[in-house]
Amino acid sequence: xxxxxxxxxxxxxxxxxxxxxxxxxxxxxxxxxxxxxxxxxxxxxxxxxxxxxxxxxxxxxxxxxxxxxxxxxxxxxxxxxxxxxxx
Length: 87
Known about the structure:
By secondary structure, this protein is mostly helical. Helices cover 66% and strands 0% of the residues. It is flat. The model has no long low-confidence stretch (mean pLDDT 86).
């Protein structure tokens, strides 16, 4: 099994079956809407922290693709500083 999308043999020329993927995308979009609705009930700080966590994970994962390991706390500090967040 391939670990990274760029290791897939057909990268970047993918093919898919609309009949199989459409129901999954509809379900995913529904769950995303539910999650966003739930997040609206949280305070600003919790939403801000959730967004920060996603950014941290994205940066660390993207760097891992290139073979670079980043420290989670350093990434969090750097992103927070650049966004002007007090964490």
